């Protein structure tokens, strides 16, 4: 995964979007600290689908939010 500073990302956004469309993930940094990540939409869609599935389980009572939090800590 490539890292790029905010100023350079702003200056070269078109090129970065072409790289992301080709499947790359790019981390944008400010003062050496990661602040954002550009990823292909397919990755974002999969993550959104997982979140919706978890919400569905919680609202149907199959899982409690507390249990999910505790599982994440293990």
Description:
A three-stranded mixed beta sheet has the order 1-2-3. The longest helix is centred in the C-terminal third of the chain and has 19 residues, at 41-59. It is an alpha+beta fold. It is built from four helices and three strands, in the order E-H-H-E-E-H-H. The protein has two domains: 1-39, 3-Layer(aba) Sandwich (YefM-like fold); 41-74, no CATH class.
Sum this structure up briefly.
This protein is α+β, with helices and mostly antiparallel strands and about 70 residues long. The protein has helices spanning about 5-10, 15-20, 40-60, 65-74, and strands at about 1-5, 25-30, 35-40.
Largest sheet: 3 strands, mixed
- The 3D shape can be described as elongated
CATH top level class name of the largest domain = Alpha Beta
| Topology, number of strands | 3
How are the strands of the largest sheet arranged? 1-2-3
Strand-pairing-aware structural class: alpha+beta
What name is given to the CATH topology of the largest domain?
A: YefM-like fold
Key phrases:
YefM-like fold, 74 residues, 20% strand, single chain, 3 strands, alpha+beta, 3-stranded mixed sheet, 4 helices
Compile the SSE list and pairings:
Layout: E1 2-5, H1 6-11, H2 13-21, E2 26-30, E3 33-38, H3 41-59, H4 65-73
């Amino acid at each position: 995964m490539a890292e790029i500073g905010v100023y350079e990302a702003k200056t070269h956004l078109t090129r970065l979007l072409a790289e992301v469309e080709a499947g790359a993930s790019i981390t944008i940094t400010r003062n050496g600290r990661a602040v954002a990540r550009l990823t292909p939409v397919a990755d974002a869609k999969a993550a959104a689908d997982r979140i919706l599935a978890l919400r569905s389980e919680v609202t149907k009572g199959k899982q409690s939010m507390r249990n999910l939090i505790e599982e994440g800590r293990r």
